[in-house]
């Protein structure tokens, strides 16, 4: 019996083992819009955190020389009725919205992965419990429930707000994860692990979740934009981020009434918001094409 | 089959009940109807406030269990209680749901149709300029929050009225669903309604729940079908590309959309919070927000029940639509 | 995308016997764009199809055999660049517009695809789909087309065609769906039918039925057929002429008998020698072709087969040989090999060219008589029931399905039991029950003498060391995200093998299965199918088990690769004294590897005994039908065989027939028994008995057994 080897020499080993990552990267970089999305997101993050260092006005500072003034070299985005600087507040709001979006998406995806994978792998009672909870959460109007908590949020606990946002976002993904887990569970490499005696939780961590990494990455990215949008909606009615904190949502709410007369109080914030969400969506779409060229439609039940 | 359906409906009813109870308990503990009377001048006597709140079953001095019992008893008899203003929640909702329907019907249908057509067309023309243009448009629209879109459309309407020189007798109205005092059933009344409907309809049709959403999903679903073997078979037996794509491709690509169609349809009654608020329509969406801002416990619970029931109906509807579209589901 | 080049005139070597070819393909090339660069899947092939003949195209996956036909049909995606020429009935097909090609497709030129489930539109009834084909070309009215569709369904052997025409594709079995595809293909009386692996997804008995239907279709329409397949047995029985493809080229072509008897290209020779054969009495050694087919992205300059060819000489690596006639053979036998004249002159055969491995000697333990060896796995009256439930939150039992209905066998040390049967027979359920090590619905499973029902969790964990599994699909059985070293270490970590020993053992294991220790750092995606299967085997051996369950371990591999893995399994068993439970649907492979064979049908074992007994003296009518359905890769034998065709499909296990489960498809029951004797089959389920037969280790579950040689 001779040894069967292919013609690959050992120098190829390293280059080929990173080839998947490289291929994904190349596929991603070939999409101009997605790359633009990454650049815009990075620029916005830099702007949000570095901008305030260089900009003379602070978000809680009032300029009593300039009430309701249009954009000028002194106040790039103009000022509010009280003399607050629109640009400084926009940066401040951008910071908060970014944090809310990123953390919220992380929570929600982690929750979805855990719930879906355990339900799909262990089936039986675990599955039933997760299913009932998922169904119940889908039936509850998230907007209303979070709004009920708005008075509790007044104590400044925006972390609770993020948990609430994430808590109403994970269900559909959990269902997708559950379905994928069920099919992965029957895959032979998982069965092989089971038949050698590897415990269930270890199989989930080692074999199941890593094999849906693409789905989870994409879900988290798309989750960022939907959490940011949810925050805007809630804050618009005063149910979200509470003063003295500002977010893009509260700024939109502040500016909406004046949008026709004092356009700078609305248009700039709205522009930054749309730009951020658009950029994140483009990144998500680019990731989907790069990681998962034959992906199923996500979210379809 | 009948037994199975009964079983499922039972489960759904249970879910709706639990959701409503959860909402009631949260609202009853987190909302403070008493605060409505606190800022008043002259301050009403505490006894008067207590009496008023007790009438509404919202007195925080009554133990929660007792309040819940009273409310639950009412709900069991089909009475969802009173709003903070002393109206019946039932009456309020049965009036508002039709307002929401009138607002949303045309916009939703328009948005869905446009989205499906654009999505399927984009998939067929994948990577051509027409697809890329559609993709960019839908991406931008998907990134504009309804709040921002509604404000922009509203302002565009006001601007249009200004330029067209009929600010006093506008063609496009930005508030409400009909000019007060107008007779609904006259030609003028219908025209007036249409004038009120144009702007919010635009928002609903092109926004994140309309065109933007459906064009993305329909495109994905169509792309999945485009690579499938049966399309190849259809062409192999002599169908022209276009008829293979529509007769076999689009027909099959509509199946995954069943869920979205059903939810869209059932939730027409739930209304559109942002659009209603910004264009001043007094539908269910507005009620959502008002029930919280007015610290209205019973309305909050009522709205939750209403939404829960509609979501569940949507779920059942989606099963039916699935079965109608897909014979594979019908069998099982 | 299509750029037809001016026809270069018929190749000089091609025979011209005066008959105008129906389809003439000349210098056809197909190139796809890919991330890694352009891939030329078909590289300048030329062939003729004459009216009414059957041309077989054989090749392994990636050889370009399907792509070339799709190119002719104009069904390749727009990303493909097609050059060359394809003249059908005097008309150039390449470069035709959608409108013109649509008139030809489905009327004069029809196609049958491999997977009939995905190839039929799920939302329309089969009757409507056939009627559509007719209406597109003949402009018939809707009801007239429907009537014609029903006639066609009847023609292809669908019972109750009127009623069944209203069914949807998912309500049909695989074989039935393929019949529908054929009905669709012949609906407009085509001159040429291209059948692309029409039986690959089907069980052998169903394959035999479908080949029969294709034969009927051919007789009815008089159409020529291009039969694309990887199965040399199918070609042997069905085709008049054949061509062998490798790496996008035709490497050998000619009349079927000639190619099988005097292959002149080493690849063809290797292919024929690497198939385990049902008709080989004693164990023959298989001759695997070393290495793997080349990547189509970066083909070597010379002959693409050279790296794997034992006969290669320097010129093989410099110039690619042209497809030329072999001087000493009959006209029309072409081969693309620099040394084909030599092969013809010296009359070289497979064993002269390829190194035949010797069949390893049995380990000492296995040389003892069977009764004296210890039982390592014992299954008694195993029953596995699945509850049929209604959906909803609280699942309710609506009935039950017996996937396994009382199965008994044992495996003794050092022996291989082949468990065979078609899909749905319960063989997979049986091994899953064994591997779960749980208490079965009823009956007992004992591994190394320990009853699984009575095991504690600890014992169960411990026994997993001795019972390991190798799965069918080498793509799916290795976690793509882990390097090979981690994959091999997993069982050892789980069972507490110290780290230092693990590393040593991983190296040993890789060597043992014919890989190199350096391979440990690579990811599964870097290996070919055969190599991956070797890794799967190495993982199964990591804990030095006593029993290996092999679930279709070679059925996902190409034939040229299959032989190497089978030889490895043979060797490991001899060296390590393993016992195998070998599950397969391919009886030829089982014939080669198994000591004893159990044949399953609908949850029961119908025949069990030594391999020689079962294969040479099959006694159960099902075993006989199964064996007779397997095509032999030998045109002479294949064409003279009598085939026992089974009627219909496998009954549902949820509602099995009363009495003997096989009686609904049994030809003995249908044709040879009178009503009195039938009663017994209807009422009484036959038990396995050996009394009626002469063999010692041979039991059959049939009331009226009658041995018959069918190979």
What does this structure look like?
- The complex is a heterotrimer of chains A (about 300), B (about 325) and C (about 700).
- Chain A is built from 14 helices and no strands.
- Mean pLDDT of chain A is about 85; it is low at about 1-20 and about 295-300.
- In chain A, about 70% of the residues lie in helices and about 0% in strands.
- Chain A is mainly alpha-helical.
- Chain A starts with 10 loop residues before the first helix and ends in a 10-residue tail after the last helix.
- Chain B contains 16 helices and no strands.
- Helices cover about 35% and strands about 20% of the residues of chain C.
- In chain C, the strands form four sheets. Chain C has an eight-stranded mixed beta sheet, with helices on both faces.
- In chain C, helix 18 crosses helix 19 (about 530-540) and helix 19 runs parallel beside helix 20 (about 560-575).
- The longest helix of chain C is centred in the N-terminal third of the chain and has 18 residues, at about 205-220.
- The chains are: A mainly alpha (about 300), B mainly alpha (about 325), C alpha/beta (about 700).
- Chains in contact: A-B, A-C, B-C.
- At the A-B interface, helix 5, helix 6, helix 7, helix 12 and helix 14 of A face helix 1, helix 6, helix 7, helix 9 and helix 13 of B.
